[in-house]
User: What shape does this take?
Amino acid sequence: MQFLEKLNPQQREAVETVHGPVLILAGAGSGKTRVITYRIAYLIEKVGVSPDSILAMTFTNKAAAEMQERVEHLVGGRTLAKPVISTFHSFCVRVLRRDIEALQINGKGYRKDFAIYDESDQQSLVKSAMKRLGIDDKQLTVRNVLSRISHAKNHLLDPQEVYLQSGDPKVERIAQIYKVYESELAKANALDFDDLLLMTNKLLKTSTEVRERYNRRFQYVLIDEYQDTNRPQYEIMRALAGTLHNVCAVGDEDQSIYSWRGADIRNILEFEQDFPEAKIVRLEQNYRSTQNILEAASAVVKNNLKRKGKNLWTERMGGAKVGYYEAPDGENESLFVADYINKYLMIAHDEDDEPKRAAVLYRTNSQSRLFEEAMRRYGIKYNVVGGFSFYERAEIKDMISYLKLIQNPSDSVALLRTINTPTRGIGKTTVEQIERIALETNLPLWDALGHIVEQRLMQPRACAALKGFRELIQDARAMLYGKFEERLVETAQVSKPEESDAAEPEIADEDLQDNMAFDFGELEPDAEEFSPEALGTAEEAAPEKVEGFRSPGENANVSEVLKFLIDRTGYIKQLEAEDTPESLARIENLRELVNAAMDSRDRGETIADFLDHAALVADTDDIEAGAQVTLMTMHAAKGLEFPLVFIVGMEEGLFPSSRTLMNPDEVEEERRLCYVGMTRAMRILVLSRARYRRRYGTDMPDASTASRFLSEVPPQLFEDIGSPQKKTPVFGDDSYSTHYDYENEDQRPQYGRTKQKTSYGGGSTYNSIDNIAEFFASRGKKFNRPSVPMEEPHGKRGFRPGQKVKHPKYGEGTVYQREGEGEEAKITVQFPRFGLKKLVEKFAQLEKA
Ligand code: ATP
Ligand code: MG
Assistant: This one.
């Protein structure tokens, strides 16, 4: 078994122990994820397990996709079937789409076409619940209410219990909102993210039939990032482990960073209780980072009192010291980072084991803006993870809401979002009327609306507008389901003429089952009735499968429906009329959505798959191939690795976040987050802070205080890489500050010896290029100096990337790259107003700006 040689003895043991439970607790970069991946490959290749009886859970969709790819690589793509590798949430959606009807809660059931409500949908529900209850409490923010609701749900408390347990009027109000929120969700046949887990858990607990079916199907269960699983996830895992107990969970307590979302440390402790025969494996060798980085990160996390403690070592001795940069302000900090990355990208080599990539990590998404601007100024291709992802943009959400409403007309949030978007003369009072009637009749808004139109319960003008909207949705629905509904009627007449109403779910059911059986691979691979032999050839036995293989609605083209909607609503026309850069960008986004729908269809997906995807794309899924720099939060960086990592904004109040400062447990979580951030770095780690920062649009009058985490890095592992000169100590700690408090350049330790210094921004000087170059040299790696040696002063040899230049026509710009030499030299410049221009240097009439 060749690939096993790429594992150390402990890892190998974990991979080869396939029967019975295994728990791996080990530090960052010790190969936990690798063990999961290799274990899957080993099960398939060596143990001969059928791939589709393997289920692996990852933390993000992206991690799942990556793991899938690696496994395929390891087994050489020899098998047709694939293991199921997904996030808990995606897995739960698939289970529920197949089996939710087996679940009864308070005598009420759910339908398979349930909608998934994301955070903004949830917010609208809470807002309208508060409005309805007349709660206008400045102290109750929508976010706050939602997090309380989520907390209650995850602790399996219903509104009643929340109400009874509290003597606090504020909590009582939350309980009331919670109650309305839940009943509105049910009415809309919708589930929020918490429900996806909770319902699956309930389903597996209450239906023996369903649970045993999944137990037969998935005989091997693996879980990555185990420290961040919450209670319902744990219980799902336990249910899935069945009686075989072939579970393998890997995690690191020091990287537990989601307790605010309900991640539960008990899961680690109870694993040993629930699975007493568990084999516990420890991994101590880190393969990711250099010794300096590892030691610095360990030194920081050691300050947490609540931890077991462990040893990690690496063969990558020494390495560059952890860099420190103190910027005068936020803008300078971002330019420093961009400049450093620019140079790094020029001299670093792409290597097999270490692609040329960098990450800028921060505490909150809003910090990305300055760095985005700096990257643009340097013409560096970058990706921002999180923040405003594609599916969160207003125009995209509008269209997705249309699709959701078409798929599930009970979806009231989708209805409210679309009813007057774009404007079609349905005013606020009309909407309130519909809401009132819905409330009185206890019907979903869609039915109330139909009632109003049919009974003409409103002014003719309002009725006409509502009718128009209703017909739009009905027409789109006919487009999507038309063929199916026709077929439905026919079949209904043949099989149960007297009960045509009852026929719909039945047919839908069968079709859906086919669909889901396909999606999961077959749920029970050995079940005879599903096997191709039992069915004869696909064409013979199941002619429908060839064409109309999937669930209702898949024959129609979602992209066609989208085009129809965009056209008939006049959405794009309205944007065209606006004719601003913003509105044109929105049009582009809408076109991209149509493309996405087409791609989805090409993959053979249904409208439900398409909508599930839109609801489930997590922040980290935005990492695009190609860009070499990724900007993201430390939370999003979990599990990833980069040769060069910056952690920026290392200031008290920013990181650790001001919200956590009062609570020692929360500060410990922030420190773990710092550990996660630092351990993403393979070769070079730089921590930076700004002395002055603008917040909420005003310049903060006082200098920031350096993050406590900075002072926890041992001084001998740390070096200043060119902070602009200053007299004030860097840290409150005096013994520390002397190290950085130099009077002039010559006193700067180590790096004062280079001649060439790049100046920028506020006239600060630094020479990160030498820092990087030296480091590469010290590791015996070659590196490319850019075609213009960095030491040469500008003028003789031409312009350098990163340099500011001036062009008679295009104005000021920044050199992006230079190709060729002498007469041949071509230079690409990024001009803020004209974009990238490639010019022949000789003729370009460029001047130094
Ligand atoms: P994290 O805690 O950050 O999730 P991890 O424990 O999951 O880290 P991996 O991501 O699996 O660690 O591994 C870290 C790096 O070390 C990866 O680049 C991986 O390929 C490499 N690696 C792991 N084990 C070995 C090994 N035995 N030999 C060589 N490289 C290894
Ligand atoms: Mg990992």
